[in-house]
Amino acid sequence: HRYSDRLLPSSSVEPSQWQRANSESIKAKIRRLHDSAGCITRQAFEDMERKLGWVYNLDGLLADGYQTPLGIDVAKMLQYDWMHTLLVAGCWNIEAGALVAALKPLGHTQKNLHDFLSSLTCPSSIASHAATGKHIFRKKHKGNLKCSASEGLGVYSCIRAFLTENNDSLGSVWKEVASYSALCSVLDVMNGVRMGKKHPNDLSYSINVYVKAHQRAYSTDLWVPKYHYLQHIPEMILAHGVVVGCFVHERKHRVAKRYAENMRNVGDGFDLSILHANLHDLSDKDIDQLHIGLVQPIRAPMRLQLLLQTALQLHGNDVFYSRQAHYAMGSLSSVDDFVVLHTDSGYVVGQVLFFASVGLQVDLVCVSIWGSRGENHFEKSDQECFFDLTCIDDCVIYRRLSPTRIVAVANSLWL
Prior knowledge:
By secondary structure, the chain is of the alpha+beta class. The chain has 13 helices and twelve strands. The strands form two sheets. Strands 2, 3, 6, 7, 8, 9, 10, 11 and 12 form a nine-stranded antiparallel beta sheet that branches. Strands 1-4-5 form a three-stranded antiparallel beta sheet, with no helix packed on it. Helix 8 runs antiparallel to helix 9 and helix 11 packs across helix 12.
């Protein structure tokens, strides 16, 4: 509680004013904890750990702060996991919970949100999965919005679409809406950085816009340390050249739990039996998702073979087609999905008709074009086109207004 002109509140949104920790400052904290361990009460020691921001572990890699046998420079090795910062009791959960509370007096209840999400159609690869997040409002929430990280990532843009469609009735909560929309842009750009389509500096800008919008809406009433961690992530990505996320790591926890939680015989062979169960589980998995191209292709009908061989001047090459294809690492699209494709003249929205490949040289997607009618509305045209498979940027979540008209859930990277 002592004020000093050298200190800034933890709610500061000006990273340029912060003094970064370094190896020596971290060692100094550990030494202080080491000197106090066993000399003060347990409660006082835990309070000291909280104030210093460091959990003391005498047997940890940093030893007691005086020895670093592995030459570890902690300050240069850290990167906050964006999944836990944003989506696991993180900034998005806090922001979404506050937004839901702000909407309720205006008549936009959680049931309205549930009905809206239920009206949306997701890409077929995730349509049957809980990760869509379409049912997170089936149960009422008080305070922070509770759901899995995958559900949050799947539904954040859908809630933004709800706000867009009801924008005319939200004037009295415009600050809360602006704050949530700014956070959605952070998640959009974060995904763009992960895919190499955005620079960490873009992420830094979007985060700065968001935290300022959040404080305009809520002051510092909802502020927790994760809002501070969030502001460090762009420079950490710049330093390491990679985005760290724990989605796969967390999912694999469930593999072990599936077998371990139901076992009651925990003798000497317990660990080995769990290892064998995990290996069996992994050996049964299809790793084709690491491949970019058609999934289970079959030889194309003669008419399609002649059409593509002639159009591409690749006579003599075998032609195959498929109902599914990976257009990027781990990204699956299927027939009837709506996709966003990038072209030299901009973005195009189309509905997948089929996928094809010609020899080992070309992978294609055939789509029916849906023309833009403004405000993320699209109408079916008579035009059908082939595109290179890598032109697909994303699959689209949408709501069908009629057999020939849809409204797409927008992503600020492409709509």
